[in-house]
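Table S2 (text version). Query chain:
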Amino acid sequence: MQPSPEQSPHHAYPDHWEADVVLRDGGTARIRPITTNDAQRLVSFYEQVSDESKYYRFFAPYPRLSDKDVHRFTHHDYVDRVGLAVTVGGEFIATVRYDRIDERGRPASAPADEAEVAFLVQDAHQGRGVASALLEHIAAVARERGIRRFAAEVLPANNKMIKVFRDAGYTQQRSFEDGSVHLTLDLEPTAESLAVQRGREQRAEARSVQRLLAPGSVAVIGTGRTPGGVGRTVLRNLLGAGFTGRAYAVNRAFAADQRTIDGVPAHRSIGEIDEPVDLAVVAVPADRVPEAVADCGEHGVQGLVVLSAGYAEWGAEGRERQRELVRQARSYGMRIIGPNAFGVINNAEAVRLNASLAPEPPAPGRIGLFTQSGAIGIALLSGLYRRGAGLSTFISAGNRADISGNDFLQYWYEDPDTDVALLYLESLGNPRKFTRLARRTAAVKPVVVVKGARHSGSTPPGHAVPVSRIPDATVSALMRQAGVIRVDTVTEMVDAGLLLADQPLPAGPRVAILGNSESLGLLTYDACLAEGLRPRPPLDLTTAATPQDFRDALAEALADDGCDSVVVTAIPWVGEDGQAEPGDGEVLATALHAAAAAGPAKPVAVVHVEIGGLAEALAVATSTVAQQRPSTQPSSAAPPSRAGAEARTGPAPAHTTSAADPGTATAATGAEGKAGAEGKAGTDVREGAGSGPGSGPRTRAGRIPAYPAAERAVRALAEAVRYAQWRRQAAVPGKVPEFLDDTIDEQGAAGLIDALLGPDPDPRGRPLAHEEAGELLGRYGITVRPTLPAPDPEAAVAAAARLGYPVALKTTAPHLRHRADLGGVRLDLANESALRRAYGELTALLGKPTELRPVVQAMAPRGVDTVVRATIDPAAGAVLSFGLAGAPSELLGDTAHRLVPATDRDAAELIRSIRAAPVLFGWRGAAPVDTAALEELLLRVSRLVDDHPEIVSIALEPVVVSPQGLTVLGASVRLSPPPARTDLGPRRLPNY
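Corresponding structure-token output:
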């Protein structure tokens, strides 16, 4: 909302302060600056506030606002006086205001850095987290305007407001003066305030998804009067699933006297329904959707699933229609799945919701599935259905204009009915947030992702996302850093999902292979080696093996402490007459089930060739023995569990099995952390795909995944092994060594950056000269070996005399930089004659000195040439990269990546994860290099980039790592005005 011309001309309306937020109950609201046009809204809002709330705000009876009050509360300069309002349906439900004050509490202007703050929330909306969201936003506004502290006077009886301040996580002081509580809040974000903010974000967004997946009533808008059509199909599927709530059919074309259709009440509008409607499925043409949304919003519908097409996938006009749809829905406090969605499914027994077009509804299970493509969703549902897998929830989000995969990660994180999260993504709307949420979710349950549109360089139609410059290989590396299981195809996703949903995580890479086919066993053995596993020699049971032989061999393998998982290979039995014996599949499945149920909990996978009925029989849950998955390492403290449609808090018990003694069950008690704190360590010890937050002990399904090819089974098992290893490591997070603080001058670097950028920096940024880059890096303890220009042979000789022989002569022309293979570098020049000769050869071969820009540099100790880089991607954030220097590494793409800030563990993994890593550790008898010094350098670069967002790129090339220490021979740094960090600001919904 733009201000009227009466608004202060000195400061433009700050439209970047406008934000949509999700409140504690899952509803949405809009936060925006108050303008002079809001006088009537303010008066109307104040009239709906109780006398008690008015008293708490003004410390005296204050029944109505005077004209002077209204003018004061609607006229702001957006610097020293700022007011924000929370609106739903265009009307105020809460306000907050700050006034800058001096040390005596009088009105002031900058450089005064304190402000008095006051809130007022309509009574009907108290308890929804409105004030907490407002505090985040007004604090961000204040910091932007140079205010560092808030002062507030609160009556002692106003416990709700005191709690808002107390729980915010900011550093604060409290005193009692003149009958009121005086609070002072330091607005600098802290680790606790960020944890509180993210904890609130998780609960609110999870609740907003829960309202869509567990409604008490559903209306299908656009239900056809005759069988067929999208709306009628959804209604049929809703009823066929046995939805436990109330269903309604809505179509404005229904006859006035029509009362039912397909046995459910029929209405011409939502307004005609006498009872509240929680969820509306919209299946009308795009031009009629705004009317349907308004009808829903005006009658209290909580959320929408929009199946209608004709939005951003249709071009610019459709994209604007989509944005208007989101704005309209959010103005009423509703969230949207879609448009162009395929629907949603929730198989929870208490809900049984199928509001989708799925032709084959999935059975109940422990897998959560999110897809941005309806076609891929159909394929995945079909594949899971054929293989006997069940789903807890299914969401096809279409254009995902509002609710996205990030929201469902928030929901699945604490959903006790979901053990594995599968996501098919064609775009990442907020990669930084996705990585953060995926890391947290992966700490308690597997997250498997297929990323479509990886190499096209274009965004799928209907998806508006930030532009990313990093290649797909980097995206994959960053996902794996976050614990995400990244696979290439939807078939691999199903393969991995089946194993992770029904089998415990392996304790290590050791694999036992047994079966009745030597050839199939060898194929499996080779596949294990190719995936980095440690297979034992296959055990050939021969083609004469009976199901009992399989059972005995599997039981023995599971009991062997030398193996962590088992792959069973099987081909049909052939009788003496050369004919395959019937019924073998079910008999073999029974034998394998019996062995797996009786033995220690280790993952089992079956590779079979043309054994009829085996896969189906293995997919049947046969065991009813309560058994929890085995524990191999602790995870972070679990969040509250949820039952049905309501959230509850409190510790949940978990039962684990020790990896050292798989047959011994031990109980552990969960510890609930401080409200709002995210990811704090607890005492809950959990493991396996089914040990999600709050899940506690549950019945083990007894399903064994079957695969038609050895490579598919082994690839799924290898992903489980790598994920289990990540879980074990994530249980004890890495850290940034404190010794770095003694050698880092953060303030000096900040001052230098400000001076280099200048008062009016170029938004395109600027590269630093060699000396400038060296000075900046030196502030963080990174020494760059100096170089001296050599525009002619005499200057080269003088430079060498100054630096000391032996020296190197290098060109610095852009097309020759770091290209030793083109002859632009001459090394180990021991004296003046050698230097002059090299200078002549260089210029004769490559061009004039003015073109080559030669420099002289003292030789470094011999070692391995490496490259360290850090870049800021607008979508993914800061990325730290490492590889060996030279053309071969570049051609092979042998570079490792980690997100910044990097921990000591990240740095150690970074240098060990490239394929050429053996070169650093004494390959072919060479001396190992100083990897500790290399890890320290990586941590220093990470810290520098993390501390100073103005640094958009750093390249240290080459970094020569010797057996003792390292030498940075070249450095380039680029500065730019800092980009906005939306992941660190107050909570807000994205606007696509």
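Notes on Table S2: The two ends are 19 Å apart (CA to CA). The longest strand covers residues 91-101.
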